[in-house]
Design goal:
With about 500 residues, the chain is mostly helical. The protein has 18 helices and no strands.
Length: about 500
């Protein structure tokens, strides 16, 4: 009964977290619209480049330690407050020296270093402040996760984004040097919300300063291998894309590509939000010896999810040429084609994220690392090969190939472990890719007709081969330990 109650609680936490993520996504869209219309393509590209440099620095100085904070912090909290303090400050003791090294390196590099990074010397201080503020905000948010306050975590995420939107709305029109001062605004917002959240949490949760050598060693041994994995993961992000694009293209093209990536990031939230609930469910099935449920998940529910994703992407692809000029301004029409290819990449990401919980369940972290590493190498190689010739469209194609590589490798690892019919999954994924690519290559009304025609053909074959869309899956969903609101939404189609 305790396990069932915990699973019910995790489902409720997931709903709150998902709702918070969608609110953040909406606020991010509002912020993007404001910035694109305020700065234009070149100014927005410059801002995106500065934020990408800052996020990269925060990624390698702090983010790789957050998993250790959550992993050992949540364990220590069950023991005592003193044990949590040791984990909290032990992790900070790993981060502080890296931040000092970063600041010293930037100071010694001076104007030459700023020029190499594509920065004006006056922008360097703003980026460094943004790095420190981001680290503070990350620390506060992952502390909430370690203390299992998922709902509070979601609330502070929403508040931070809402404060940033409000600050840009009120202050930005009066800024003399728009881009660099906007970075200062980003830094001030993240620092203020991060500090307020730590004060709200209560001083006794993180004070006094305590640590010991054994705790730091455990954290380091756990976190250092993740740094290698995250390094390869970084190679698949838009940050590396922006840095490479800037070497071969103008700031305006950086802005066009970043806008396209921001849009698909919102769509990518749909499959990403499934991970926190799928892993606990799969763990429960394995512990309960319900192997048939795991096979049903991969053999039937994943093809269903691909079909749903296919429909969403076809609609979005058909509307791109209308949406971008209307919402973001005529200056961003050039974002349409790369956004189309990036949406195709999202279809591959949906396949990838559906296999990830299974690999985590079986503790096949090596397969996850190899998939991430291969995707990172493909992305960087594709950028270096395609960007000089095709510009931002080449970067988008490289991202699609990287996502496709990771999806194939993850599903291959899963298929080697589970004996499930492969035809429904293959045909459903083929329908997604064929539909999306058809909508990108062909344009206008022809893309919708051709894409939907291919999709219907392949999906008909998938239904006939795998006998999908029967009552079996929906009845199976009713039996799972999910909140009733989730059950109702899942079985509505039955």
């Amino acid at each position: 009964m305790q396990a069932e109650r915990e699973l019910q609680q995790s489902g409720g936490d997931y709903l709150i977290s998902a709702a918070g993520s969608y609110v953040v996504m909406g606020l991010s869209l509002i912020l993007t619209i404001m910035l694109t219309r305020m700065l234009g393509a070149a100014g927005y590209g410059q801002l995106a480049l500065l934020l990408a440099i800052g996020q990269t620095a925060a990624y390698f100085t702090s983010f790789w330690t957050t998993a250790g904070l959550v992993r050992f912090g949540s364990e220590a909290w069950l023991s005592s407050t003193d044990a949590f303090h040791r984990v909290f400050w032990g992790r900070n003791a790993m981060v502080f020296p890296l931040l000092l090294v970063l600041a010293a390196a930037i100071g010694m590099a001076g104007s030459r270093g700023a020029e190499w990074l594509g920065l004006h010397p006056a922008e360097t201080a703003a980026v460094l402040a943004y790095v420190f503020a981001t680290v503070l905000f990350q620390t506060s948010q992952f502390t909430f996760q370690a203390l299992k306050r998922v709902r509070v975590f979601a609330g502070w995420q929403v508040l931070e984004k809402a404060c940033l939107v409000a600050a840009v709305w009120v202050v930005a029109a009066h800024l003399a040097d728009g881009v660099s001062q906007l970075v200062w605004l980003y830094a001030a917002t993240s620092a203020a919300v991060g500090l307020l959240s730590m004060l709200w949490l209560g001083r006794k949760q993180w004070w006094p300063i305590r640590s010991d050598w054994s705790t730091m060693v455990r954290l380091a041994q756990f976190s250092w291998p993740l740094l290698l994995s995250l390094t390869f993961g970084y190679l698949s992000t838009n940050w590396i894309d922006l840095l490479i694009i800037r070497r071969y293209a103008s700031l305006a093209e950086v802005g066009h590509y970043n806008l396209a990536y921001q849009v698909i990031g919102m769509v990518q939230t749909l499959p990403t939000l499934s991970f926190p609930i799928l892993l606990p469910l799969l763990v429960g099935w394995q512990v309960g010896g319900r192997q048939e449920s795991i096979q049903l998940y991969l053999g039937r529910l994943v093809p269903h999810a691909c079909v749903a994703l296919c429909g969403i992407l076809v609609v979005l692809l058909a509307l791109l040429r209308t949406i971008f000029p209307l919402v973001f301004g005529a200056a961003f029409v050039a974002s349409v084609i790369p956004c189309g290819w990036l949406l195709v990449a999202v279809s591959c990401y949906g396949v990838f994220i559906s296999g990830m919980p299974l690999l985590n369940l079986w503790e096949q972290t090596r397969a996850i690392f190899l998939a991430s590493a291969a995707a990172g190498v493909v992305n960087v190689a594709g950028d270096l090969l395609f960007v000089p010739r095709f510009g931002i469209n080449g970067a988008a194609v490289a991202t699609f190939l990287a996502y496709a590589t990771s999806a194939v490798l993850v599903m291959r690892s899963v298929a080697c472990r589970l004996a499930v019919p492969w035809q429904p999954l293959l045909l459903s994924v083929g329908a997604v890719l064929a539909t999306c690519i058809g909508c990108v290559v062909l344009r206008g009304a022809a893309s919708c007709v051709a894409g939907l025609g291919v999709a219907l053909t392949l999906l008909t074959a998938a239904v006939g081969t795998g006998r999908l869309f029967g009552p079996r899956e929906f009845g199976w969903l009713r039996a799972q330990y999910l909140p009733r609101s989730v059950q109702r939404s899942n079985v509505a189609a039955s």
